[in-house]
Amino acid sequence: MISKAVIVFLRAPEEGRVKTRLSRGLSNAFVLELYKAFVCDTLEALSLTGDKHLYFWPRGKEKTLQEWLGTQYQYFLQQGENIGQRMANAFVDIFKKGYDSALLVGTDIPELSTNLICLAYDALQTKDAVIGPSSDGGYYLIGFEKSAFSKNMFDGIDWSTSAVMDQTIKIMNRMSIRYGLLEEMNDIDTPADFNALIERVKKGGKAGKRTHRILDAYEDGYINYHTCVK
Length: 230
Prior knowledge:
This is Glycosyltransferase. It comes from Desulfobacula phenolica. Pfam families: DUF2064 (PF09837). By secondary structure, this protein is an alpha/beta fold. It has one domain: Alpha-Beta Complex (Spore Coat Polysaccharide Biosynthesis Protein SpsA, Chain A), CATH 3.90.550.10. Helix content is 37%, strand content 17%. It is built from 7 helices and 7 strands. The protein has helices at 28-45, 62-69, 83-96, 114-123, 164-174, 191-202, 209-219, and strands at 4-11, 51-57, 74-77, 101-105, 129-133, 139-145, 179-181. Strand 5 and strand 6 (139-145) form a beta hairpin. Helix 1 runs antiparallel to helix 7 (209-219).
């Protein structure tokens, strides 16, 4: 049987330390509850996919995450000096565990769906890698077949810039990595991103149920501080 894993990158839920750019226009308390909704909705979207491994930051927060999300997940500290090294090391770790293919996702795409994850795995049936581009020039998902993976694919990238996706594609082309592309999605990093999400949902766009609840609370002029159900 082909074994599949999903690597989830997340931060511990600490007020003022998650989605900090959102706090330029929204309160830290609201941003924390929004982030918690994003995380829980992401995990629900992944519930019917491969084995889930949660790679967290910062150090020393495993107990905090277990108390919040439960002990049904495996928690691992992210290792590396930048996001590229941390992602590369997570893939190395997962493939050492014996998985044949793995996806890595973040927790700031509230419109991520189970169907999209299934499409990513489908792409790996015929490709070496799969990428989900985000509207800010980065990507929200990246995945590899074990036989095609190399840590070198994360070298020489200008992380946290609009060049990430293009630079990654150039590296894959140079290494003759066959990749599939998913549909473009939207990270929620800034107040403008948040407002755009509200408008998409108003027009029928789909987001996780917890995100829907907190958006409704925001629109109604109050915050429900218990949006995230384990």
